[in-house]
């Protein structure tokens, strides 16, 4: 009997599988993804999986009519392959993190009546997850009251680094794994005022923008800790008292676990505007601020620097649950 994990395409989805599989070392694990996207890069060589399979599939949503028909045909073919694999490996449960790369295996699970557990990362459901939610044995979402597990799978270090903030001594700008032009522009606009107030700047600018951003800081004569991408983000978050960030799911839950209050500027082109709804989940609880990219007002951002951050920081500490990956792994073995 094996546990089959499926889905991916981007890091946001794949990171969930990576975190959960760490707690399933005793099980026979199978990964099924797509040849398109980052699935192969992440898991093709990963020895935690007894077998890995990558189907010729691609997204359906962002295609013209002919492209949609072709994508659906590829998915149909892959579903037949998935049915064979689930039978061959005697799958006892299928864990899907969504994305087009999960579709064939998740459908196959339903056809074979194998329990299907879905993890949704965002507050606005992905198309596949929306379609399969009513048929899932368990649907896990940190934003839904009825979810069997509320904890988002992030590393323990973010919780270990939590501390209550009161005033802004250090600010961190986070553009997400790729960096964000709008956040870079805002940071550089604010920089002289931040310097005047003696506030330290940490700025994750994205690998492609690092040189031009550093150049502007140099021209302004402002010292800032600028980098493209770092593997030590937890340490930087620990240092900061306020974040200005994109609201990708992992970033949002990592900041929240660190009890670091944030102004979120959602990526405007995210599917179903999910970054907006991710941030809105915290804003409704009065635990974060939000500003649409085309509604950024420097004056309003500067006003946040005078806020007492302790209430939000404490509130974040109270709502964020720990051990998401362990809890999901336990659920998969108990089904
Ligand atoms: C553009 C887009 O559509 N992104 C989506 C993608 O997120 P994507 O993976 O791009 O973004 P997330 O915020 O979820 O994760 C970024 C990850 O990169 C790490 N990091 C970032 C910068 C750095 O210098 N070092 C570093 O380690 C962060 O700690 C975090 O763990 O999937 C997520 C989950 O479905 C969605 O919520 C996001 O909206």
TrEMBL record:
Q: What is its EC number?
A: 2.4.1.227
Which InterPro entries did the record assign? GlcNAc_MurG (IPR006009), Glyco_trans_28_C (IPR007235), GlycoTrans_28_N (IPR004276)
Residue intervals of the Glycosyltransferase family 28 N-terminal domain: 3-138
Q: Which reaction does it catalyse?
A: di-trans,octa-cis-undecaprenyl diphospho-N-acetyl-alpha-D-muramoyl-L-alanyl-D-glutamyl-meso-2,6-diaminopimeloyl-D-alanyl-D-alanine + UDP-N-acetyl-alpha-D-glucosamine = di-trans,octa-cis-undecaprenyl diphospho-[N-acetyl-alpha-D-glucosaminyl-(1->4)]-N-acetyl-alpha-D-muramoyl-L-alanyl-D-glutamyl-meso-2,6-diaminopimeloyl-D-alanyl-D-alanine + UDP + H(+)
Q: In which pathway does it act?
A: Cell wall biogenesis; peptidoglycan biosynthesis
Matching Pfam families: Glyco_tran_28_C, Glyco_transf_28
| Residues that hold UDP-N-acetyl-alpha-D-glucosamine according to the record | 10-12, 122, 177, 275
Q: What is its main location?
A: membrane
Keyword terms, alphabetized: Cell cycle, Cell division, Cell membrane, Cell shape, Cell wall biogenesis/degradation, Glycosyltransferase, Membrane, Peptidoglycan synthesis, Transferase
Q: Name one GO molecular function term.
A: glycosyltransferase activity
Decide whether keyword Metal-binding is in the record: no
- Domain Glycosyl transferase family 28 C-terminal, by residue range, is 170-319
The family database entries (Gene3D superfamilies) matched by this protein are listed as:
Glycogen Phosphorylase B
Which branch of life, at top level? Answer: Bacteria
Chain ranges passing through the membrane: none
Q: Which SUPFAM superfamilies match?
A: UDP-Glycosyltransferase/glycogen phosphorylase
From the Swiss-Prot or TrEMBL record, state where the protein is found.
Cell membrane
Give the way it sits in the membrane.
Peripheral membrane protein
Summarize the protein's role.
Cell wall formation. Catalyzes the transfer of a GlcNAc subunit on undecaprenyl-pyrophosphoryl-MurNAc-pentapeptide (lipid intermediate I) to form undecaprenyl-pyrophosphoryl-MurNAc-(pentapeptide)GlcNAc (lipid intermediate II).
Similarity section: Belongs to the glycosyltransferase 28 family. MurG subfamily.
The UniProt entry, under PANTHER family, shows:
GLYCOSYLTRANSFERASE (PTHR21015:SF22), UDP-N-ACETYLGLUCOSAMINE--N-ACETYLMURAMYL-(PENTAPEPTIDE) PYROPHOSPHORYL-UNDECAPRENOL N-ACETYLGLUCOSAMINE TRANSFERASE 1 (PTHR21015)
* Protein name according to UniProt: UDP-N-acetylglucosamine--N-acetylmuramyl-(pentapeptide) pyrophosphoryl-undecaprenol N-acetylglucosamine transferase
């Amino acid at each position: 009997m094996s546990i089959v994990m499926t889905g991916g395409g981007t890091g946001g989805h794949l990171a969930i599988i990576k975190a959960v599989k760490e707690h399933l070392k005793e099980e026979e694990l199978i990964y099924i993804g797509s040849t398109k996207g980052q699935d192969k890069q992440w898991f093709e060589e990963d020895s935690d999986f007894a077998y890995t399979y990558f189907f010729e599939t691609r997204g359906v949503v962002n295609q013209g009519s002919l492209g949609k028909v072709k994508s659906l045909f590829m998915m149909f073919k892959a579903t037949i392959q998935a049915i064979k694999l689930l039978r061959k490996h005697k799958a006892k449960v299928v864990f899907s993190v969504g994305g087009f790369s999960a579709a064939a295996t998740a459908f196959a699970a339903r056809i074979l009546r194998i329990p299907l557990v879905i993890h949704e990362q965002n507050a606005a459901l992905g198309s596949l997850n929306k379609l399969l939610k009513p048929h899932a044995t368990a649907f896990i979402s940190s934003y839904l009251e009825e979810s069997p597990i509320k904890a988002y799978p992030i590393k323990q270090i973010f919780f270990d680094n939590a501390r209550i903030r009161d005033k802004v001594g250090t600010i961190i700008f986070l553009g997400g794994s790729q960096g964000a032009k709008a956040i870079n522009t805002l940071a550089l606009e604010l920089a002289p005022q931040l310097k005047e107030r003696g506030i330290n700047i940490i700025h994750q600018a994205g690998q492609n923008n690092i040189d031009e951003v550093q150049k502007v800081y140099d021209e302004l004569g402002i010292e800032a800790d600028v980098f493209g991408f770092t593997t030590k983000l937890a340490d930087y978050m620990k240092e900061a008292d306020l974040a200005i960030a994109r609201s990708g799911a992992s970033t949002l839950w990592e900041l929240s676990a660190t009890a670091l209050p944030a102004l979120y500027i959602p990526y405007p082109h995210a599917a179903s505007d999910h970054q907006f709804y991710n941030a809105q989940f915290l804003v409704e609880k009065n635990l974060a601020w939000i500003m649409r990219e085309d509604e950024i007002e420097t004056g309003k951002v500067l006003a946040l620097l005078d806020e007492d951050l302790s209430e939000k920081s404490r509130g974040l500490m109270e709502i964020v649950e720990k051990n998401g990956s362990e809890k999901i792994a336990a659920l998969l073995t108990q089904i």
